[in-house]
Amino acid sequence: MSRMSREDQPVAEVVDLGPLASSLGFLFRMGQIEVFDMFYDTVGRLGLKPGEFSVLWAVHLNPGVRQGAVAETLRIKPAHMTKLIRSFESQGLIARHIPAEDRRGIELRLTDLGEAFVNDNAQAFFSYARQEANRLTPEEAAQLIALLQKFTRLGGTP
């Protein structure tokens, strides 16, 4: 069986990857590239990168959450998280609050504009997310999600 390219055209030359094709890290990376390509094709009009909506969604579900907790959960480096939150703040999407009892912690809340943005775009984002597994049967998709939740220690419901 010949492989198909991203554009569903036959690949002219098949490259043997040997044991690399069974490497979990390699397969995660290739899967990430596939999913990101689908993301930009489908939801690129929002002007967001894949992880950015995830941050807004987490703050939406957890008003007052500490910036460090979101960064740790989503595995975003602190410096990058600070830059991202400042960008959201300058766009009027997020408000930061430093509590008097712990000046080291930064609490995050969506602004009214941020709430409107999340509410206006959640359906597009999650519709895209349901399409990510369109190459799998519903049972395969559920199994893959469960395995990835276990592997990443995220758990929760898909």
Automatic annotation (TrEMBL):
Official protein name in the record: MarR family transcriptional regulator
GO-annotated biological processes: response to stress
Pfam families listed in its UniProt record: MarR_2
Top-level taxonomy: Bacteria, Pseudomonadati, Pseudomonadota, Alphaproteobacteria, Rhodobacterales
A GO MF label: DNA-binding transcription factor activity
Residue span(s) of domain HTH marR-type: 1-153
Species whose genome carries this gene: Primorskyibacter flagellatus
Organism superkingdom: Bacteria
